[in-house]
Each structure stands twice: as C-alpha cells, then as structure tokens.
User: What shape does this take?
Amino acid sequence: MNTATVPSLDDRIGLRAPLLFACVSLLGFGLAYSLIGTVLSGIAFPHQATGSIVERDGRAVGSSLIAQPFVDARYFQPRPSAAKYDPMAAAGSNQARSNPDLRKRLAEETAAIAAREGIALSEVPPELATQSGGGLDPQISPRSAQVQAARVARARGIDPAQVDALIAQHTQPPQYGVLGEPRVNVLALNLALDAQQRQHLDTRTRR
Assistant: This one.
C-alpha cells in the first residue's frame, strides 16, 4: 500500500500550531480589536464615533463631517462635489489643470455662481467653484460664505448684518492656530439661520 500521501503524526502536529495561530489572529485582530476600538471610541468620543450626526428636533439632518447639497436660496451652498455628495463614493474629478473639460466646467461653475449671487466673475472665490479631493468637504472659507450672504438675507427677508454676524460666529480658526485656514461649516451655519428665524417668529407671536 502506498502511504506517501498519508500525513504522518508529526505533519499533523506541525500543522496544528499555524492553524491555531491563524484562528487566534482572526478572532483577536478581526473581532476583538474591532469591538474594543468601537467601545473605547464610544466612551471617549461618543459624538464622533457615531458619525458626528447632527439632529434638529430629534431628527437627523446630516453630519458635521460630510457636505450635502442645499438647493433652496435661503441656504448657503457648499463646494461642488464630483461624488454628488455620496459618502460611499468620495472622490475628486482627478482631472489635470490642463484638461479642457476641467477648464470648461470651472468656467461654467464660476458663471453660475456669479449669476446666482449677483456678483462679478472676478468676485467668485476659486474654491467655491472647485471640487475638493474627496468631494465631501463640509466647510467653506469665510470669503465663500460672505459672497452668499446677500442672497441668503434677501431670500429670508432679514437684515444682511444678521447673516454677517452668524458667519462671524461660525468661523472656525485654523486648527491649533496653525493648521489649515479659517473655515465655516455649511450645515451648522444653515441650522443657525433657521434657529434664529424661528426665534424671531416666536418672539413676534408672543407680542
């Protein structure tokens, strides 16, 4: 009888250690590590661990980390998104500056913003017409917010100074004072506008 293909006792013992290590690694690094990380992050950073979800009146309205489109003239607009603001498809256009399609899109986007805000083409901040690398940046620069202030105030029928004040209140400085540029979270600013207007309406109703 040919026994060349039958594993010996030593072979079976030799396989036991790597198989055991593989199982322990799978459970330890694949399951236990993930569970421990989830639990610890939930304790240390409960808001961030659940996606930095923003709620209004007990209902989720978005995430402070992900941009979303606002089509109503009463709201500030974020930067354009190559991913259509889909967090599962985060990406930029990956087009070089020399790409004619990119140049055409930028020209069209700049013209559309200028028409929407009632400003000259030269007054449109370049970043407001360009897509970010991930396509989901939730913030814009203070300048990009300021060029939209007049349109928002007009659509809401409020004093432009009130809108400017909210922009100033929601302008975040560079992280740690040196990293990045001043920025404004679009969702937070729009929610603050709604809250301010509701407060004014409630005050008038009480009178």
